[in-house]
Amino acid sequence: MSVVEPWLHVMAAVIRGQEGRILLAQRPPGKHQGGKWEFPGGKLEVGETPLQGLKRELHEELGIEVQHAQPLIKVRHVYPETAVLLDVWEVDVFTGEPHGREGQPVGWFETEQLSGLEFPPANYPIVTAARLPEVCLITPEPEDPAVFLHKLEVALQSGIRLVQFRAKRLLPDEYLALARETARLAHSFSARVLLNSPPVMLPEADGLHLTSAQLWQDHDWQPHNGWLSASCHSREELAQAAEIGVDFAFLSPVLPTLSHPGAAHLGWEAFAACVEQVNFPVYALGGLDNSHVVAARKRGGQGIAAIRSLWS
Ligand SMILES: Nc1nc2c([nH]c(=O)n2[C@H]2C[C@H](O)[C@@H](COP(=O)(O)OP(=O)(O)OP(=O)(O)O)O2)c(=O)[nH]1
Ligand SMILES: [Mg+2]
What we know:
Belongs to the Nudix hydrolase family. The protein has 312 residues and is α/β, with parallel strands linked by helices.
């Protein structure tokens, strides 16, 4: 990504309606990327703040008044015609009945339908961000499988929808058996499971999670099914994660942690600066709990991930 590129600042919205459905519009034929589905929005005007621009665009294009919105992701993309900075916000409270005021078709879609639609090439990470929740549970080292699954169920009941199954001390067969049970239980709550360093990838998993060391191994990690995510601790590791094509990442430690007392941590400023360098969703990790979701979002993060604070 060139820093001298004159980026065209575009505001776009992931508008959430009933049961989490998302409102999309079709770009008018003849316009740039015409005919494709888009997250409604348009160019920021001189003198506007991003939120003002977002509100104006959604009023002009859909006739709605935004009541509450928060940043979701920023994506930079260079088209042959223009370089765009897509500044995407999530809108969860609005008034008015959205309709295509410029004659464009609009529709509500389930998050799971999004990956089957044709969007402009810049939109892939936005679709990932729209499908990912704000909070990810990373499991602590399992001791007794029955106790583990019970605690997992408690976490799922409390609203967890993304689980990174992390077990370093199990034998391969034990790992796979518990990973299968974890996926089965998570799926019964419509939650998804990433496998951290599995002996083999399981078809029932929703993604493969890489350690930061694996990022540098000469290996094709792309799983046949699901997402590819990675643990990162620096700008260099995030750049390497981008290089190998991860869908999203976890950046840590953001705050001091009990597990690594006295170790250096990034702090929110450095977290924000690192996230700004990449085009995919990044979870903040390290010393965090549910109360830090808004802080993470303000710094460009997808939300927070945690072990300790999300496990009973
Ligand atoms: N709104 C929106 N624009 C997108 C998305 N993906 C994507 O690549 N773009 C690009 C296409 C365009 O080059 C640019 C948005 O410009 P636009 O044509 O919608 O701008 P606008 O609403 O202000 O329209 P206009 O006044 O120029 O007619 O961003 C998306 O999901 N939503
Ligand atoms: Mg527009």
